[in-house]
Amino acid sequence: MNPNSTSQSLSNLSKSELLQRAENFVFSTGLNDGASKLCRANIKYGIAQFQLIQEKYGFEPKATFISSPDETISRNLTRWNSGLGYGGRINWGNGTDKIVFLNTKPNQCGILAGGLDEPPEPYDLIKTIDETKNLELYYKDIKLQWDYGISNHFINCFESKDLSDIDLPQYIFFIHGSAPEMRDDTYGLGFYFDKSKTLKELAIEEETIFGKQYILLDDDARQYIDFTNKALEFSMVKREMFAHNLFGNDFSVISNQPHQFLKDYNNMYLGCNCTDINYKYSQKNIFPIALRADIACYLFKGKKNLSEITIKNQGFVDRAERAELMDLLLNADILPHGGGYLFPDIKDVHNVLEYKHQRYFSCSMVRDVNKFKIIRDPSQIQYEYRGRDVVLKTLQLDLGNIIAKLNPIFSLKL
After folding, report:
1. What HEC string does 188-212 produce?
2. How many CB atoms lie within 10 A of CB 346?
């Protein structure tokens, strides 16, 4: 039986055939470095699981991953062990199929870009942050948590250089954060199945030959979408509230874009901006790409993508037409949100060893391809952040246009 076919029953395929089939639904625009290759090596396991579960419940088994140029690993171990990567859009339906995959773990993370007429003094900002962290701030009944010094969350300040006809303030800051307040069931259903007892009890546990997924169907899926939308609104308001506390009322909101969220029942943007300007939470067609603290960041205007020429140049046409996914690719609406993690010593994924639903990735080394590092949990591996290569690839793929170059003044993690 041909594993490249999209019409046969998946139950008749072997594990290797299922993985080969899943690979045909992975459309990568990444940099093809070690982290990008690790992402692709892992996500075929997640896509294969999604497709098996889709077929079981009567949905067309065509779960797909379209990566953005910052394609990389996920440092969230639950998400990684579920067979998922980071930096792209995961699709498993037309947006209305009432099935939600909870292992994607949307956390409503995003970046607010604000404009200032004068650059803030670092000492004054540090003092204000310390005072703000000691306040009890609420949005409606939800007590705000400070999460702008956790993981890769931050507050950055820049001097702006306009590169388009859009007139921007001379100084711009980024606030990067999410909504940890609503991961558990303190304020409702919760959006992390491994943090919320209520959500875990509601979810259906699906065991596949590649691992375990938690799903919601029908009205339970609708409840979850309603809650994640509420959480997404909260996360956006929270960033503005903290911006007002830190910078007063003299700043202007340039954009406040999410990049880790469930858009609808069947589309997860996982570390990726959504350039669909008709989406109600994409307030403006201005999107930040946040790179390392030592180099410039950028504001982009998004495009409807991928273009036909990009699809052709990337070699996607045959697979997309065979699976009837051309329309999905033409409306991918993706744009990087950052540089993504980079493993400077890893060149390629040589092999994947499986034991008790655990995957061990045998990776060749940059300095000696005959030597290997075997990885189970990538969050424990030394990493760096990528630089301008992500922006250059974004321009090469015609995913958007640069509006402004933002030269760093300082970065705060407190």
Report:
1. CCCCCCCCCHHHHHHCEEEEECCEE
2. 23
pLDDT tens-place string over residues 322-371: 999 999 999 999 999 999 999 999 999 999 999 987 999 999 999 998 99
Residues 6+ apart with CB under 8 A from 249: none
Q: Indicate the length of the chain as a whole number.
A: 414
Side chain identity at residue 116, one-letter code: L
Which structure tokens are listed for 197? Answer: 């007892």
| Cβ contact 143:181 at 8 Å | yes
Q: Which runs of E-coded beta strand occur in 73-153?
A: 86-91, 99-101, 109-116, 138-139, 142-143
Domain ranges for the chain:
10-341+399-412
| 306 preceded by a cis bond (ω within 30 of 0) | yes
Q: Six-digit token pair at 114? A: 């604000």
Does residue 358 contact residue 376 with C-beta atoms inside 8 Å? yes
User: How far is it, in rounded angstroms, from Cα 107 to Cα 179?
Assistant: 6
Provide the pairing of β-strand 64-72 with 26-27. parallel
Number of other CB atoms surrounding residue 82 within 10 Å: 25
- Opening angle at CA 258, ends 154 and 190, nearest 5: 95
Residue in the structure block whose two tokens are 């300007």? 277
Whether the predicted pLDDT of 6 surpasses 90: no
**Tens of pLDDT along 203-250?**
999 999 999 999 999 999 999 999 999 999 999 999 999 999 999 988
* Helix ranges (DSSP H) in 141-217: 197-202
**pLDDT category of residue 1 using cuts at 50, 70 and 90:** very low
- Which two tokens mark 336? 């990087």
Q: What is the pTM of this model?
A: 0.96
Q: Which two tokens stand for residue 264?
A: 């609808």
Q: Rg of the Cα trace of the chain?
A: 21
CA proximity to 21, closest of 319, 222, 293: 319
- Helices 34-56, 15-23: inter-axial angle, 10-degree rounding: 110
Cα dist. 251→115, 241, 352, 409 in Å? 5, 12, 50, 17
Per DSSP, the residues of 15-31 read HHHHHHHHHTTEE--S-
